[in-house]
Structures are given as structure tokens and as C-alpha cells.
Amino acid sequence: MQEPIFLESVFQEKIWGGRQMADYFGYAIPSDQTGEFWAISAHPNGPSILKNGPYAGKTLAEVYSQAPELFGYPAEPVFPLLTKIIDSSDWLSVQVHPDDRYAMAHEGELGKTECWYILDAAEGAEIIYGQSAANREELSEKIAVGDWDGFLERVSVKKGDFFYVPSGTVHAIGPGIILLETQQSSDTTYRIYDFDRVDDQGQARDLHIQQSLDVVTYGPVANSKPQTLQVDALTSTLLVTNDYFTVYKWEVAGPLEMTRTAPYLLISVIDGTGQLEVAGRSYPLQKGEHFILPHTVTDWRLEGQMTLIASHTS
Where is the Phosphomannose isomerase type I catalytic domain (predicted)? Predict the structure, then answer.
């Protein structure tokens, strides 16, 4: 299979969602409370389905299991990464994710380390990125009395910012933000605080205080330091690399020949238009497109004026 893999993927409606994905990407969203688009996903809670090639109609999880040669015969038993678009018209819950050890023991799935590339942000937009309590006892006390402003760290954000969010980091995305998230393939979230919201049935969402206290890490969050390299028609910025994934921003300005250096690539077009050429065939690309370059694609050509986010397992 010497061709890219294009996908039909799932939108998720959320109490805090909005309609920025329609405005920013032109997506046909299901409602004005569309919070997430699981653009490249093999997770059972939001599986992507292949649109092209000999495996069209199968889920990404099925293809990962049945055709391991497309992914370089990976060691991981499940497809390890997930690419999302998130639109927050209101605050997401203040939350934390477990690491692999805790998640496998208690939830039966991978932990969740993630990172965010801010696609756009309203003036004054903020996130919660870390917390100041020194230890479990202090954090437990502050949660018990609801001293949220006393320990949650707020950070202003703007278009083009990048944040690395390792497991154990207390965090929340604020209103007026649309971002691309690269994460481990996990759907485990422990809520610490949900701004006293209720759903349309008047019910508050569950909190997970005990689990949160079990997994929170202490001390300041160490964000990554992106590194940029320009070669010919490509400006490549290494956004982060860790034990789970490596993420790049590629700014393409003209024709560009590329060769595979990772088992496979997950690619999202976040701006511009152009085309991808593989094995003599051309595929038009536009803002909002997401695809996989499998292991069987060893070289390809990009042309146009585009900004891409590319990721692979580390």
C-alpha cells in the first residue's frame, strides 16, 4: 500500500464545546456544542475509519492489528497515538491524567501524556497549567476548601503557543481557544473541579478527587523548548520529543522532497493548501485535512504553501 491513509473521524459534543471548528476549518459539525474532533484515532471511544485503499471501511484499530507492516511491525499492542482538535467555548474541567502504570492498573488502558498547539485564541484567553501545592496534604486541603485561585496556575495564551502536558499535570483549557492536541491513545481523565456546572438535566459531572490526588505531580511544569531548522522550502520546528511521541511543525513554502525517518507519520494540515505526491499520484491537501503516511511510503513530495503538524512514536 504505497499511498497515504485518509480517515473518516468522529466529533464529540461537550458541555463546554462550541462551533469554532466550523468557522476555522469549515467542518460540518454536529451541533454548536462540538468540543472535540478525534481526527486520527484508534481508540474505541472514537474510532477513525479508513476512506481509501484496500482497507477502506475498516477502523484504524482493525488495520493496525491486521496489517502491522503498514506501521513498521510495531511493538505496541494498540495504536499508541491520538490527534484531536479541541474547541473550548467555556472552561474545561480542572483535571489531571494518570501515567501508564496507574492507568493500566486502574483503567485498563494507556496513561495520557499530551501536548497542545494553539491554533487560535481570543484576546485574554487563558489556560490552567500546573498548580502550586507542595505536596499531597496541602493539595488535599486546598481542594477541600475550594481555594482554587490559591493554587491553580493561570497562563495567558495566543495563537502559535505550544504546551507540553505530561501525565500528572493539573490543567484546564479556557474559553475562546481552538487547539490541536497530540496525545497517547487514552480517554482517562480525572476531574478535580468543574466550576460547579450542571448538565441540561441539572446533574453535576462526577469528580475524581481520590484518583487525582494519587496521580498529581508537584513542582513547576517544565514546558518544552521548540527548536527550529530551515532547509530549502521547509521550516521545521521540533515542538517536543519524549518517551511517547515526537511532534514537529512543518512550514512548507514550495516543492519539497521528503524521506521517511520514522515508522509512520500522523499529519494534520493546520493552514494553507497544497498537494502531496506519493508513487506518482497526487493528493490535494487543504486546511483541516488529517492523514497517515504508513511505513510502506518511503518518500513523498509536498508542494504549496502549508503549515503542518506531524507526529510519530518516539
Answer: 6-116
Beta partners for 310?
248, 267
C-beta neighbour count of 136 within 10 angstroms: 12
Residues in Cβ contact with 108 at an 8 Å cutoff, skipping those fewer than 6 apart: none
191 is catalytic: yes
d(C-alpha 238, C-alpha 312), whole Å: 12
CA atoms of 177 and 260, how far apart (whole Å): 33
Q: Identify the structural domains of the chain with CATH numbers, from first to last.
A: 5-215 (2.60.120.10), 227-313 (2.60.120.10)
pLDDT of residue 198: 84
Q: pLDDT tens-digit profile of 9-34?
A: 999 999 999 999 999 999 999 999 99
- DSSP notation for 99-119: -HHHHHHHTSS----EEEEEE
Within 13 A of 166's CA, how many CA atoms are on the CB side? 15
Largest CA distance in the chain: 64
Catalytic hit among 191, 260, 281, 301: 191
User: Residue 56: what are its φ and ψ, rounded to 5°?
Assistant: -55, 135
Tell me the per-residue pLDDT of 165-208, one tens digit each, with 9 for 90 and over: 999 999 999 999 999 999 999 999 999 999 999 877 888 899 99
Burial per residue of 70-100, b for 16 or more beta-carbon CB atoms within 10 angstroms, e otherwise: bbbebeeeebbbbbbbbbbbbbbbbbbbbbb
Q: How far apart are CA 155 and CA 157, in angstroms?
A: 6
As a whole number of angstroms, the distance between CA 65 and CA 47 comes to 14
| Cα distances (angstroms) measured from residue 104 to each of 74, 214, 239 | 19, 14, 27
The torsion region of residue 304 among left (phi > 0), alpha (psi -120 to 50) and beta comes to left
* Cell numbers at 307, concatenated: 503549515
Q: What is the reported pTM?
A: 0.97
